[in-house]
Recover the amino acids of this structure.
């Protein structure tokens, strides 16, 4: 291990948030340590190593938060602790915050998977790096402050959500609390769904260009999406006691596109039979020729017709669901077999050691996530609960939250700002399980709603200001 840089950062410094989200509020004074673990020369003479950054605030609260990565990793993001922390990053709260690149450098940050040609680099990304660097950070913290961290937390979304699941499954005693958002838990199968199954469903009905290739962007028109969106809202929005543009009970939404089917002689404010069939096929998720579901379908939610910046699954376009395809068929049986990735997939349900260690685990997933189906995470949660004593027993240490309207890790016509970190710390350190977590967001300025742990959902009490979370209850 090498320490490559250490510096005292003065109070009042602001950091750029990732993905163009602006700058943080002024940060407290902290010591920033950067270093590399396991530096080596790998395949093709390329340099590898786990590069990390650790922020240790002067006014330390006694705890460690490790933040998860994103996409293909390969980047050391600023150690701020932004995920699921609401308006107050973990560093501002006094957490020591750790970040790392999981063992490789991305030439094109985000989705550069060229590193997988090197076996150890792939293993570091899959599951090794995070646990190793977390243990090192704990040693640095103990030496710097003269005492060990009292509690250790992990929080991440997408790839970071998968990493949290991996840590609970493979390293069950490293963290006391793990927050897993929109996890990329089975990327091979989710890529089958969004990269082949859904595009093929729309290619089959799309008009063709001069060379006979489907123009997927014209398969579903803007008018079609407006019609679908309004119909979903009409059918499902009121089920939570209030028609407010938010479908708080996603599992209770019984929308069927066939209700929009054009009757004989009608061509407007309705959908042609082939469009209805394509929409139902796309949303239902990939199935074999014998009807075996290989990856869950998607929810009918307010954001599935969104046009950007992250498109909904009913807004197909080139590159939206991975590399553009003009295929008209997909062999699901063959594709599903090659899509299983045992080193990366986070599907083990035996968490007896994690729970015995008194670990706490919170899942959340955007209902309109077009990249990873919320129903896949939900299915895992149900299977994990069944294998660990049942939902009543597991709810004492793990919860699952649907986030209405939210796209992938944020955005969409929903409330995507929430403080699961504060709720988790209270659960771990005081034994108080969160009855709900309040959410806000730019899509509905001035509005707040409770996010409720499964099997409950937010429901309007019938009286009081409809913009305030206090007038909703978890039912």
């Amino acid at each position: 291990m090498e320490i490559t840089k250490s510096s005292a950062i003065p109070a009042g410094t602001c950091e750029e948030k990732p993905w163009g989200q602006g700058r943080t509020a002024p940060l407290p004074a902290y010591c920033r340590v950067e270093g590399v673990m396991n530096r080596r020369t790998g395949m093709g003479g390329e340099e590898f190593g786990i590069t990390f950054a650790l922020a240790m605030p002067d006014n330390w609260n006694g705890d460690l938060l490790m933040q998860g990565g994103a996409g293909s990793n390969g980047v050391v993001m600023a150690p701020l602790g932004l995920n699921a922390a609401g308006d107050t990053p973990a560093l501002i709260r006094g957490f020591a915050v750790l970040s790392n690149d999981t063992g490789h450098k991305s030439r094109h940050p985000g989705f550069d998977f060229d590193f997988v040609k090197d076996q150890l680099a792939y293993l570091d990304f899959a599951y090794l790096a995070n646990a190793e660097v977390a243990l090192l950070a704990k040693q640095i913290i103990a030496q710097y402050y003269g005492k060990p961290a009292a509690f250790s937390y992990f929080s991440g979304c997408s790839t970071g959500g998968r990493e949290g699941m991996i840590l609970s499954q493979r390293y069950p005693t490293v963290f006391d609390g793990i927050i897993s958002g929109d996890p990329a838990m089975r990327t091979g199968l989710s890529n089958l769904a969004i990269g082949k199954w859904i595009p093929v469903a729309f290619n089959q009905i799309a008009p063709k260009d001069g060379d006979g290739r489907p123009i997927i962007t014209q398969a579903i028109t803007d008018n079609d999406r407006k019609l679908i969106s309004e119909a979903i809202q009409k059918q499902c929005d009121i089920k939570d006691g209030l028609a407010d543009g938010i479908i708080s009970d996603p599992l209770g939404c019984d929308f069927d596109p066939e209700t929009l089917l054009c009757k004989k002689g009608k061509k407007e404010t309705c959908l042609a039979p082939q469009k209805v069939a394509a929409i139902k096929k796309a949303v239902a998720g990939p199935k074999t020729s014998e009807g075996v579901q290989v990856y869950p379908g998607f929810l009918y939610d307010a954001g599935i017709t969104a046009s950007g910046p992250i498109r909904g699954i009913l807004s197909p376009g080139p590159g939206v669901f991975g590399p553009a395809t003009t295929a008209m068929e997909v062999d699901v049986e063959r594709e599903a077999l090659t899509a299983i990735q045992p080193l990366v997939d986070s599907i083990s349900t035996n968490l007896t050691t994690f729970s015995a260690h008194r670990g706490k685990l919170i899942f959340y997933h955007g209902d309109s996530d077009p990249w990873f189906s919320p129903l896949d995470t939900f299915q895992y949660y149900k299977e994990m609960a069944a294998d660990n004593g049942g939902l009543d027993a597991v709810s004492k240490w793990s919860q699952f939250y649907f986030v209405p309207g939210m796209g992938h890790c944020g955005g969409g016509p929903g409330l995507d700002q929430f403080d699961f970190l504060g709720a988790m710390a209270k659960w771990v350190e005081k034994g108080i399980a969160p009855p709900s977590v309040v959410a806000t967001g730019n899509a509905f300025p001035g509005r707040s709603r409770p996010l409720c742990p499964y099997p409950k959902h937010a429901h309007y009490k019938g009286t009081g200001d409809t913009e305030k979370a206090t007038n909703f209850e978890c039912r």
